[in-house]
Amino acid sequence: MSRVVKLAVIPGDGIGREVIAQAERVLDAVTADSGVTFEKTPFSLGADRFLQTGDTLSDDDLAAIRSHDAILLGAVGGVPGDPRLKDANIERGLLLKLRFELDHYVNLRPSKLFTGAPGPLSDPGEIDFVVVREGTEGPYVGNGGSIRTGTPHEVANETSVNTAFGIERVVRYAFELAERRRKKLTLVHKTNVLVHAGAIWKRVVDTVASEHPDVAVDYLHVDAATIFLVTDPSRFDVIVTDNLFGDILTDLAGAVTGGIGLAASGNINPDGTFPSMFEPVHGSAPDIAGQQKADPTAAILSVALLLDHLGLRDEAARVQRAVEADIASRDRARSTDEIGDAVLALLQA
Amino acid sequence: MSRVVKLAVIPGDGIGREVIAQAERVLDAVTADSGVTFEKTPFSLGADRFLQTGDTLSDDDLAAIRSHDAILLGAVGGVPGDPRLKDANIERGLLLKLRFELDHYVNLRPSKLFTGAPGPLSDPGEIDFVVVREGTEGPYVGNGGSIRTGTPHEVANETSVNTAFGIERVVRYAFELAERRRKKLTLVHKTNVLVHAGAIWKRVVDTVASEHPDVAVDYLHVDAATIFLVTDPSRFDVIVTDNLFGDILTDLAGAVTGGIGLAASGNINPDGTFPSMFEPVHGSAPDIAGQQKADPTAAILSVALLLDHLGLRDEAARVQRAVEADIASRDRARSTDEIGDAVLALLQA
Ligand SMILES: CC(C)[C@H](C(=O)O)[C@@H](O)C(=O)O
Ligand SMILES: CC(C)[C@H](C(=O)O)[C@@H](O)C(=O)O
Fold first, then answer.
1. Which residues form the Isopropylmalate dehydrogenase-like domain (chains A, B) (predicted)?
2. Largest pairwise CA distance in chain A
């Protein structure tokens, strides 16, 4: 009997739908003879759905998604400043809600400069690192509020919450990843200013480091890390960092490796208690939606991360190789579908 | 009777001392015939002083510094990981303490790509923007703590505190600066995640914007801002942002404009209640201290900011021009003193 993977697909808004269409074609093709059947359930979620129904993510949606083995997501979010979305906060109410409810404590974001990929650096060197971003704590917890809101006496606070439990599990994941890679781990934080949050990160990394004597451990303040990302990105192998610093570093890392049109990510629940979710780092870019201008590569590489996560390593490697070959041979602007076609052709070659 | 400016000079640690020596030569030369006399008081503060006396910044030091008109600071901080400095936290106890006690609510950081300056971008375009970083609030307030510290049940919190009072004054400063420049202001924050801190920033910027109808206002999430800093830095004129995002963006901005060896900053109390403080963005770099390897340009440009702040606009412009001429003619590695010599010669030419 063949293995069945129940996959929830959330194309989302804007270019999300276009890129996910191509990602699905690649997924279908590469798994056709794999002995694994993907049962896909589409979920209509995002700004468009909110505008139609007023729902962001209902309990029923969440329960339905939870019953799947994995999730493929395009991008969610409406036109910035759309007054009808003012109180929706699709990002917190949908994307972050999924990450928190499904305990995606590892936000995995590989950065690799592929041969032929355009990039802003004149001398990038070899870039091949992975950011392991904590996904369920830090300044992202939504633990804030304000008093005298809207008056000249307003005070608005946001609290970053960091636990030994939460940090240790993601740090362990990062060390295990470093063991399988070039055995170098860099903690990025701002320990000199965020003294308490910084101290717990430092302490946990030091503790886990003692169990991995062969991994070289390094520390950088987040400000210094951004400098190295543009002046010496080759120095990085595995970066482990908190939710907010990881958000910032991975957009910058995406930019230096050819743009976030190429950057894939996995929101992973390593315990397997909940389905993990794979998505391009880019947003829904409503300004170019429906114009076949979006690069589906990030979504396709997210399929590779999904396959890898499911243990389908050969299939993951085939997708990765097809994308690399496609990037290496780029010589003109192509439409979303054309890039999908090209990757498919390379996959079957 | 000639005007007297009482200047507190804090060379600090590591390369701080070397670069301040050159900055002082330039200051002395450019003000020699200005009719303004600088009465300089050196203050021995920093990691070295802490190691000798156990003092970081005593009440007496602070009172003495407060009685000056302005401060020139090199860099403070010891060798990273030095166990004797473990509990000192020179950054919080000295640098941030000065910024907070002297109400340096504008942290002014110009970023300009000078002709001839090296940079990591292959096609940087014209870069000329100023980051107006809030200096006394946000995640920098030191409002954190932890429970069950060091145990597997530790929880460590850090609270970002944001007030309408604190934001409005820095936002007003930024708009006034934009009025004198290219009339473009970009707010950088993370409003989609830090909902409360983001909302107050947005609200204050919207309010002040209505008084400056000729300034074009723009908003970027901090992650997207880092992308534009490496792909399209010319788009920026004035960036206004919170303390932590400003810290991150200005290191990155320094890197794309030739390295933080060229990046100057002013910690400004625009009300004039307390002395403002001028310092290079770089740190004390103990690894290269005493080797004549440090570039004093950032410290010298900090002197230009100081002169400008004191209303000595001609003198400021002369320093700026001498530095630009020096950078344009760089053709080999030079020592700290040689760069100082060259700028001095250009100043007198
Ligand atoms: C859309 C936003 C909430 C999200 C984040 O900040 O995590 C995005 O920037 C990302 O990196 O996936
Ligand atoms: C040394 C550190 C406390 C400081 C900061 O974070 O503000 C530095 O990075 C800076 O930018 O001046």
1. 6-343
2. 67
